Amino acid sequence: MKLALTIAGSDSGGGAGIQADLKTFSAHGVFGMSVITSVTAQNTKAVLGVEDISPEMVYLQMKAVFEDLAPDAVKIGMVSSEAIIKSIVKGLDEFKPEKVVLDPVMISKSGHALLRPEAVEALKTELLKRCLVVTPNIPEAQVLSGITIKSVEDMKKAAEKIMSYGCRSVIIKGGHLEGDAVDVFFDGREFQELKAKKVPTKNTHGTGCTFSSALAANLALGHDLFTSFKLAKEYITLAIENSIDIGGGAGPVHHFYKLYRMAGMKG
Ligand code: PXL
User: How many domains does the chain fold into?
Assistant: First the structure.
């Protein structure tokens, strides 16, 4: 069995963060492990509170996993603070995982800050260069690149700028632009675009987490990066199409739509 590790925040509502990541790994037949960086008190409507785990404990969780379990891929999500970024960097430098996916989470679906503004610089200068791929959405890509994005051409310029921080590739997710959801992939040599029809639903809680975990799961399974990107895009599109209408706000995407369909289960 292949193994994947998520280093991210907990979402008590179960739709995003660690919970989404572990469900996504399981849906791909990959054994999931977790390093929790922060606990959010959250539902489909709002974040009521955020409490960070101590940086020492973040490092210790990484040590516990890596000294025994050897993840085939790692996904990093909500990192919250500069001190936690420093702990993660210490762990990455010590244990040297090869395939690291970074989802540079900044704000929750409901608009709550999940990364302190003063930690953006450390994320850019310390974390990016230790990653195989970084997966910002448009607002995150604007913060990372300093470029205003209104078109696919702007996404390409932002991708080039983000690459200058030393990551090995970038996927900018175009879901926030008008029209089809066009994602731009850049590995420093060529640009590739993947397009999908936008699914008309309010139930998109956890899309970013789920996409980056699906990417990590496919990398853990041994697929190359671009194939993993294509498979993750297909998975998230279907998970959104089958999203679950629960709670009063943005409901979660359906991580197990395939399994449920196979088993003839409702939901
Ligand atoms: O989707 C971004 C995200 C990441 N991590 C945690 C979250 C959210 C969004 O709500 O709660 C813990």
Answer: 1
